[in-house]
Amino acid sequence: MIIAQIAGALFGLLSVVLGAFGAHALKGKFTEQQLVSYETGVKYQMYHAIVLLILGYLPLGQVKALTVWFFIFGTLLFSGSIYLLCYTGYKGNKWKFLGPVTPLGGLLLVVGWALLLYNALVPIFV
């Protein structure tokens, strides 16, 4: 599935760029808590970039294709909202409406992992 490969490569590339940016440009600007949150966003983005790349090279059935979309949207919502919350907090105008977006993104990631588990277990029991 080419979308998984594209998203995985893009997420991986951006996580390296954003991680380096956070480690160098934001270190003296963000609070310690903001840096920890920012780093969490970068880590989760990279983890899911790797998973998307792996899924992109496997034959995908309907469940795996659905998993790819949950991982893409979950990563965008989870990591993206963390980045924006940290940045807008640093600028002094924290976008608090993004607060619920982070757990929603996390929920999408959890559903993606549950779908992978389901996909692994079905052949055993069918």
UniProtKB/TrEMBL annotation:
Major location (coarse): membrane
Domain of life: Bacteria
Pfam family, one: DUF423
Compartment(s): Membrane
Transmembrane spans: 44-61, 68-90, 102-125
Alphabetized InterPro entries for the sequence: DUF423
Protein's membrane topology: Multi-pass membrane protein
Protein keywords: Membrane, Transmembrane, Transmembrane helix
Entry's family note: Belongs to the UPF0382 family.
Name used for this protein in its record: Membrane protein
Organism expressing this protein natively: Neptunitalea lumnitzerae
